[in-house]
Amino acid sequence: MADSLVKLLFPNQNCHVQSIRLTDSWQQMKASLEAPAPVLRMLGELAAAAALMASGLKFEGALVLQIVGDGPVKLALVEVRSGLKIRATVQMRAGMEVAPNATFKDMVNANGQGRCAAILDLADRRPNEDPYQGVVPLTGNTVAETLEGFMTMSEQLPTRMWLSADENAAGGLIMQRLPAHGKAAEGTTEDTVEEGFREVQTFAQTVTPSELLEIEPMELCRRLFWELNPNVLDELTPTFSCRCSRENITQMIRSFGEKEAREIIAEQGTLKVRCEFCGSLYLFDAKDIDAIFSGHPVKQTAADISTTSKGSA
What is the pTM of this model? Predict the structure, then answer.
């Protein structure tokens, strides 16, 4: 089944729910990554959560969700661009082992210094304008608990989230309480709004990790919520998409300086850059470096390789 994200509205309960299942895109995301199974499962959960969070954004640009860890995992990062185009990567600390039964805390918050950040990067952001960034400590014991707290605090709306990932798929379910508005708000009290949220949560919390991974989101929502008769707002298709290009890599080389680039060419003969997200390999020789720092365009060459080889430069 194709990747899918379903949005539901529960008008009588002032609540909305989204369900996601990533299969093809998850396989493409992890194809070029070399990390232990517990780390990849964590990254899969983060990818499902990022797509759920990004699906409601009303601007052109990207949501970047990242965990900066203080344990074996140095960085876990997911970027979701407009149209639910998603990519992800993870960076490990050299020399630190990850046990097969490692917990979220073991991997990213062993010393209590881990952080979670959500960055909103607008496509029309001015060159000197920083993207919006919210950063919180890793207070939860799981990805879901951490993001529940983050969203409840940042959006001032109670949020619950369930996430799961394995080698085949990544899935998630999120529910948020909405403020009463319009006709639905007439005669509505805080107690009745809270009661509606609890009613939907009673059904949502019966979901199992295996259901998130194995059942297509529309069917899963039918099974969970048919008694409440929600409105289906939308069904979307997340896709893997990397925005690396020779032009972007050229800009990166230009930014770290001519001296460093020429030193690499002198030592190795070729400057190699592998994309951390998709594994594509870009090769630059001495003539390319001359062109980069003379201001001339650098042409695409047959040496550029799109690959799923492990690792990055």
Answer: 0.88
